[in-house]
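FW: tagging you since you asked about this chain on Friday. Here's the raw sequence from the shared folder, copied in full. Didn't touch anything.
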Amino acid sequence: IKMAGDSRFPDVDTDGSEKSEEMEIVVNVGGVRQVFYRDNLNQYPETRLAELISCLSGGYDSIFSLCDDYDPGKKEFYFDRDPDAFKCIIDVYYFGEIHMKKGICPICFKNEMEFWKVDLKFLDDCCKTHLSEKKEELEEIARRVQLILDDLGVDASESRWKRCQKCIWKFLEKPESSYPARVIAVLSFLFILISSVVMCVGTIPDLQVMDAEGNRMEHPTLDSIETACIGWFTMEYVLRFISSPNKLHFALSFMNIVDVLAILPFYVSLILTHLGAKLMELSNVQQAVQALRIMRIARIFKLARHSSGLQTLTYALKRSFKELGLLLMYLAVGIFVFSALGYTMEQSHPETLFKSIPQSFWWAIITMTTVGYGDIYPKTTLGKLNAAISFLCGVIAIALPIHPIINNFVRYYNKQRVLETAAKHELELMELNSAEGKAAGSKSGLEDLSREGKEGPFYSSRLKVSHSDTFIHLLSEEKHYRTRLQSCK
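HL: got it, structure written out here
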């Protein structure tokens, strides 16, 4: 790139012949003037800058189809585009690849590349990753806005049962949709807490009673509360299943599987208590019932349905499988090495607690995780030295992957808050523009009546453009107007 202070722009005859053998193209993008040589531009003839070479022979119609303005005196093409993005895009003519500068919106940069007719394949892989992340964010915002719009809209063609089904689904699944829905969500949360507390309190011996055979059992009052909670959970699950738009996806969802695991033990134990005694011994029935009662701890995971923090933690752990795998690998290697060394060093002591290497695994685990129960400990000097090295290595092995896991949690949590705020703001813009459109429509309607409706079509098209400006690109078929989200302002 050469500054255009001493550049010579070739004169063009009426026949379109050039008076200069080496042609120079002078462009002004957002106030920044640049000079390009024909040899560089001809490397990519399908780009807009390369088309400027041949447009001179086509007259002003051809010129203004490619640029915003043209100064025949200065022989300069004008473009009302982003100069910072343009400086990055022209690297393709000199280096064969493009890198985005820091601070440039990826979506706007993609639009700039489309304007200059430069293929996205020239964008470097690191920048493509950033672009794909931004596109995923816009898709997520569009999905959230579309879900809200679907909830607000009423399709008159739907049957009465479909509308009722949608109302029940919103009532149970979307607490933000109405005040009664919030009340139901709070009640569900309270039932989960009450059920968990009853499960814990029921194990206190002083609150248990003796049955006819002399065995301890839960207090009848606690049992009644448990039955009421299970009845609520069952009714809630059945209503959600009936009203779900996709029942197969609903049944296979992880949180819904947790709901089933929280409900199922109660009914299975009830069946075993009343009918199982006829088929098996009473002691076997009681053991099976006690094993099923332990499964009631699954209902605590139902809290994740009402807690965005727990959902964020689950997603962060899911995204951190690689870091968790490294943590387990570090610990596994350390446990194997230090348990083998501990067993070998402790064999010389007559009262050794290290009977075998597999038994030493337990000592290595509690030592490297800095728990240290003290049930197994070394008694020789070398064994103590090995123990000291093992817990120091354990601290390092645990600390290394923790930081990336925390970063994943913070990044996803902040991202969810930004997406939620962006979706709400986009809806506010839609509502604001809709209200302005109605006010402008009522005012222009009086003018149209006085002018006998001559400007009606013009107003209609103008209102359509104004209305489409509030939509996310993925929600609208019109692609000529960038939204506030796409311009990232």
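FW: The chain has three domains: 24-123, 163-305, 311-429.
HL: agreed, and The CA atoms of residues 11 and 19 lie 6 Å apart.
FW: great, closing this out.
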